[in-house]
Amino acid sequence: MGKVKPKRKSTLIDMTAMSDVTVLLLTFFMLTSTFLQKEPVTVLTPSSVSELKVPTANLTTVLISPEGKVFLSISGDADSTYSSEKVRAEVFQTAVAEYNKTHSKKIEITPQQVAKFSKLNMFGYRLADLPAFLDKEQFKQDELLSDPENQLAGIPVDDNKDLAKPNEFQIWMRAIYNSSNPNLEQAIKKGEGIAIKADKDTPYSTVHDVLDNLQTLKMNKFSLMTALKTEND
């Protein structure tokens, strides 16, 4: 008898279903991921073993550069009622109003400048010069904030204890606390609404002034942002 040859089967594999699954997974991760926001300066945080995560909503981040300059970032709720942009716009207007109460040279801002400020992830500029800063193009703003020689960059902070004449850091923090977003206020009270991020080479005097200012404002609970310690540390 002749040898029976087995029927050959095609080795081709239909990858259509696999491609669909890959696209769905990619879309899912893109929509659910939190992207790193651009910061004006590079900060290398010290290492620690803490694995507690800093919240992404209702948070004020105080960034202190290696040169001792202070920057702020404000985030609101995920929904539209107290979105980050709405909270920032309100805080900006409140801070300007508070500044004008104690300074003879008044600051005037336009709706366009308020709208531009509301889109800033992180800011740090002297209040009197902030309107002119907001009128500049985005690339020029980035240059001014990242320039270590620019004396106007950074929020002024000192060891002031007289809240009748607050410094600019105190003006901003009070404006944030007094915003209409109740969730941000509650987060600050619980110690989850303020995170301090400083470089390992940041001058201690600036860090001390920031902490002292927060205590003067009765904001005694906050987090220190660190990098997770590895086996090599």
Explain this structure to me?
The protein has 233 residues and is of the alpha/beta class. The chain has one domain. Helices cover 39% and strands 11% of the residues. It has helices at residues 16-32, 84-102, 111-118, 130-134, 138-146, 168-177, 182-190, 204-216, and strands at residues 47-48, 59-64, 70-75, 122-123, 194-198, 223-224, 227-228. A five-stranded mixed beta sheet has the order 4-3-2-5-6. Strands 1-7 form a two-stranded parallel ribbon. The protein is elongated and about 105 Å long. The mean pLDDT is 85. This is Biopolymer transporter ExbD.
Features:
single chain, 233 residues, alpha/beta, 5-stranded mixed sheet, two-stranded parallel ribbon, 39% helix, elongated
Percent helix among the residues? 25-40%
Number of domains: 1
Number of strands: 7
State mean pLDDT (0 to 100 scale): 85
Largest sheet properties: 5 strands, mixed
Give the helix/strand layout.
Elements: H1 16-32, E1 47-48, E2 59-64, E3 70-75, H2 84-102, H3 111-118, E4 122-123, H4 130-134, H5 138-146, H6 168-177, H7 182-190, E5 194-198, H8 204-216, E6 223-224, E7 227-228
Parallel strand pairs: 1-7, 2-5, 5-6
Antiparallel strand pairs: 2-3, 3-4
Helix pairs in contact: 2-3, 2-6
Short structural summary:
This is Biopolymer transporter ExbD. The protein is α/β, with parallel strands linked by helices and 233 residues long.
